[in-house]
Structure formats: structure tokens, C-alpha cells
Amino acid sequence: MKYRWITAPAQPALANFLAKEVGVSPLLAQCLLNRGLSEPDSIRRFLEPRLKSLADPFLIPGLSAATERLLVAREKKERVVVFGDYDVDGVTSAALLCDVFSKLGISTQCYLPHRLDEGYGLTQSGVENCRKRHPTDLIVAVDCGSTSVDVIARLKDAGIDVIVVDHHQVSSPAPAAFALVNPQVQKDPPWFKELCSAGLAFKLAHGLVKRARDAGINEAMALDIRNYLDLVALGTIADLVPLTGENRILVSAGLERLDRTERPGLTALKEVARIQGKIRGYEVGFQLAPRLNAAGRLEAATQALELLQAPDAETAMPLAQRLDNCNAERQAIERAITEQALAELRSRFDPAKDYVLIAGGLSWHIGVVGIVASRICQEFHRPTIVFGGDGHEWRGSGRSIDGFDLAGALRQCSDLLLRHGGHAMAAGVSINPSKLGEFKERINHIARTQIPAEQLQPRLRLDAEVTTSDLSMGRIAELQRLQQTGMGNPQVQVFARGLTHHRPLQRIGAERKHAKLWIKLEGRTSPLEAVWWGVGDAQLPTGCFDLAFAPKLNEYQGNTSVQLSVLDWRPAEAPAI
Q: In 309-340, which positions are buried (b, 16+ CB within 10 angstroms) versus exposed (e)?
């Protein structure tokens, strides 16, 4: 047993009541309760996300002031630059705003910083290079800028206004931007706190078009912002923000748009990624987003932006192929660094002291350190920061575990750092190598005071105990109504007791890293198929066992069947059900 199994408390009375009220099974009702949904109306809204349920964009702090300033820029024919970021959220946000601004008659250019040369965010070097290339009167910083106090102050002194559209934590004091469109500035639990920058960009576009129509601007009358929902879905899924609230609505509608997108760049990207079926969260998160991200990780994110802005297939296909090649190169670099980092950490890991894992190398490409940190965090189940850089500055990316606010811990180490920022679960940091030892000691001390020892064993959260009779095609199809799953709305995970093999299990795949099981079902001659992806050399179930799994519908050659995606197993604790 790899995990500590934690099953959500069963609430049979309430689940049965909700099942009757809403017209779902008790199992689905229990899963909804586990996701914090206990009112029939909120459940209906969750199961049927609709664009008309989106809240007024002007409830977002700073958005009204931002729209007014942009309309002034249009009226005065001022030059506007959208300053984005090099990840998928930043690139899709920039593409969305550039296109909307331009179609509304606002003179707009776009600038994305170079990860290696300029670093993350609204840096001084990035702004200087931007202004040399695009003289401007107004900068709209998207997916960055919430901590850029000094840079924004200098721009203000130079007579340049800045609008920040961002979802990251805001510095104290906050930057003196003309408008700070960021739900994080509210002290109470803010509206729209789950939105990433692509979602905020969409809300800004919505508000801007609304105000432009009120002002009688002709270009706004025919502008349908729903056409940008494909970009919003890309940015939202790629940025791993909770797929709840407004995000659930935007992603559901956005995936439908993405499925039939008329954007030449995305059509080409789907082709090089060999996506033929329906676009879901998996295809975005593991096929489209990595290719868009690859440009910013290894080269320049402008390639991804150019792809999203491509006017036709002839322009788009070479760009998509270049991103595909770039992604293959990224994967090779990432594998090599991951192997080095894991070997180093395994050789010196002290579980009593190393609550936060720190690794780094001069030759490690800073464009992939975040992915490497994710791999290490997954294996050790400890917050991890991986650095790359030179003798003067190391730049790192960190990933955390539930219960440890990584961005908050970095703030407590700010006197040792050159820059830092991010979220509770993921953050970026820059440091002088001479400070690395002291930083490692301090952040580990912080973690040891905040993380209980039992929290360092990975936990497997399960929705319910089920019997094999719950695993019918109809029941699993009903559970698909919880899609799209992700952060804040995890996939359904359940367990069953006392199972046995119908026939001997089999290791599968070219390197035998996966395993297939056939589960015996009471009263049926045909078994239930289960697959354990990436199990490697781990021990497989024997005898009578309990199995934790995610139930799926497997579609293959036109046929649909129930398939269990195995998560863990343990020797049976009770007789077979």
C-alpha cells in the first residue's frame, strides 16, 4: 500500500435526499457532497454550467477603471502594449487581449519577455526592451505585475500608465498601477479568486465590450467574445487553477469551442499532437499545453503567440511543427535533469530534516526546472524547489504539497532572495548562490514547524466505498457529469473490498511499466478490466485484495466499456462483497 487511504465520510441520508431532489444516483450525490455541494440549486448549476450564470465582470476590483482607461486610450489614439508572460496562461491572455483591443480600434502591440534573458514578470530589463521595440503610452501587464512595485513606479514617473491584469498574490505595498485587476487585493474571500489570468482577461474583454457598446462604438457591436473561450480553456487548464465556480463554466464552454475551433493555429496544433477525438481536459493538459509551453521554456514564447495569432493554415502549420519539435527537445532535457536530480537527492535524503527538498545545477536549463520539481515532489511527497542558473543568480521553480504555503514560506525568506512570487502550491524564486545554504536551512525550519509528520505520507482521497454492482456502464457514464475534473474538482476515486482475479494479471507496454488486471464479478462470467498505469516494478495485487481506482469509460475502435484505472491496493480487510 503506497498511500494512506482517506475515505470521505458517508452521508447516506443526505445523499439519498439529494439524489431524489436532483434526479441522480446516491453515488453521484455523495461525490457532489464531497466537493462541497449540498444544496439542490448549487448542484444543478454545477452539473449544468452555463455562460449566462457568469457574474458581472465589474465586480472584479479594478476592472471598471481599466475599461475606462482603455476607452480613453482609444479616443486619444494612444499606443498600448500588452505585456504578457511566457507560459500558456500568459500567452493565451495576451493573445486574447491583443485581438480584442485591436478589433475595438485600440492601437495595440504585444510583448512577451524572454525567460532566459529577462526572467519572469514585469522586470526592468523586460520593460526597457519592450519600450525600445514598442514606444507606448499605456502598458497592460497580464499574468504578471502584482509585485512589480519599483518597475511600475518608474513607468509612472516616465508618464506611462500601467494596468495590471493578474491573479498572483499582491505585494505589500501594492504597485501603484492605474488599475490593479486582481481579485487578490480584497481582504475578505474575494469574488473570482479561482480565475487565472486568461479568465480575468476574458472578464476584462467582456467589460470592455459592454462599455464600448454603451458608448456606441460600432466595432463593439459585432464582437462576440465567446469566440475567445477556446483560449480561456487552454490557459485555465494549463495553469492548474481550481475548476470550480466561474472556471467550470468557462472551461466547459471553452472546450466545446476548442473542439470546433476555427483558429488556424489551434487546428494545426491539434494535428501535430495527433488529436482525433473529442477535446477534453486531458488533451489540453497533456498534449496541447505542453507544446505551447515548450516555446517559452526553451526558446521564445513569441512562437506560441504567433501560432495563436496565425491568420491561415499555411502560416500556422510550420509554427505548430516547430513547437512540436521544441516539445520533444524539452522532454529530453527534462528527463536528463530529472535523473540527475533524483540521483543526487536519493543519495543524501534525510527524512527527519529534509522537509523541503532543494536541488540545483549550473547546467540545468531553467526552462524545465518547474517540471522537474513536480516529478521530485510527486516521488518524495515533499515541497521541492529546483534551481538552474549561473554563478551570479540561480533561478528556481517550486512545487508544494497540501497544507504548506510555498509562496508564504518564501516571503519569510525574502531577505535572502533576489525575487520570489507565486501561489501556495507553486512558486518561482531567484537567489544568489552564496545564500543557498542559509535559504535551505531556513525554509526547512519553517516547513518543520508547519507540516505534521503524518502529512508527509501521501494520502489517497477516496469518494466512497463501492460494490462491483455500482460499476455498471450507466453508473460510470453518470459520473462523467462531474467533468471537467482537475484542481478543486478531482476525478472520482473509490475503492472496493474483497476482490479476486478472474485470470492472471499481465504486465503490458514496451517496457512492461504498466499492468492489466481482470477482476472477477459476482454473478457474471465476463470480468471487469483494470489497468495500472506506470506501476513499474511495484508489487501487484495477489489473493483477495481491496482496490482503489478511478472508474472510467474506455472507448476503443467504436466500442465503449468500463475500465478501472488502478491507484493502489492492499490485502483484503474484509470478506468479499
A: bbeeeeebbebbebbbebbeebeebbeebbee
| Helix 302-309 / helix 289-298 crossing angle, nearest 10 deg | 140
CATH T-level fold of 460-571: OB fold (Dihydrolipoamide Acetyltransferase, E2P) (2.40.50)
User: If you average pLDDT over residues 309-316, what whole number do you get?
Assistant: 97
Q: What pLDDT is attached to residue 555?
A: 83
Distances from the Cα of 266 to the Cα of 243, 302, 320, angstroms? 22, 15, 8
Give CA–CA dist 41/371, Å, rounded: 39
Arithmetic mean of pLDDT, 331-344: 95
CA–CA gap between residue 320 and residue 308 (Å, rounded): 10
Q: To 10 degrees, what angle do helices 197-214 and 88-103 make?
A: 10
Q: List, by residue range, all CATH 3.10.310.30 domains of the chain.
A: 349-456
CA-CA distance, 360 to 272, in Å (whole number)?
33
**8-state DSSP, 288:** I
Strands, E assignment, 294-450 = 357-361, 384-389, 394-399, 419-422, 426-431
Tell me the pLDDT tens digit for each residue of 12-39.
999 999 999 999 999 999 999 999 999 9
Residue 577 has pLDDT above 70, yes or no: no
Which helix (H) or strand (E) segment holds residue 464: the answer is: strand 464-465
Give Cβ neighbours of residue 41 (< 8 Å, ≥ 6 apart): none
pLDDT confidence tier of residue 576, bands split at 50, 70 and 90: very low
Quick check: bond before 450 cis, omega within 30? no
Handedness of CA 260, 266, 268, 270 (dihedral sign): negative
**Can you tell me the distance from the alpha carbon of 220 to that of 67, in angstroms, rounded to the nearest whole number?**
13
How far is residue 367 from each of residues 298, 453, 544, measured CA to CA in Å? 6, 32, 46
CATH of domain 349-456: 3.10.310.30
Q: List, in order, residues 6 or more apart from 206 with CB less than 8 Å away.
A: 54, 57, 225
How confident is the model over 487-508, as pLDDT tens digits? 889 999 999 999 999 999 999 9
Instruction: State how far the Cα of 428 lies from the Cα of 119, in Å rounded to an integer.
Output: 10
- The mean per-residue pLDDT over the stretch 481-485 comes to 92
How do strand 514-519 and strand 528-532 relate by DSSP bridges? antiparallel
Q: Where in the chain is the domain with CATH 3.90.1640.30?
A: 57-229
Which of 245, 161, 247, 244 shows the shortest CA–CA distance to 200? 247
HSE-up of residue 519 (Cα within 13 Å, Cβ side): 30
CA distance 170 to 56: 23
* CATH hierarchy code of domain 57-229: 3.90.1640.30
Do the beta carbons of residue 570 and residue 540 sit within 8 Å? no
- Beta-carbon contacts of residue 11 (< 8 Å; ≥ 6 apart): 30, 33
How far out from the chain centre does Cα 456 lie? Answer: 23
Contacts (Cβ under 8 Å, ≥6 apart) of 291: 269, 272, 273, 320, 323, 324, 326, 327
Cis before residue 49, ω within 30 degrees of 0?
Answer: no
Where exactly does CATH 2.40.50.460 map onto the chain? 460-571
- What are the distances in angstroms from CA 20 to CA 15, 28, 470, 474? 9, 11, 18, 17
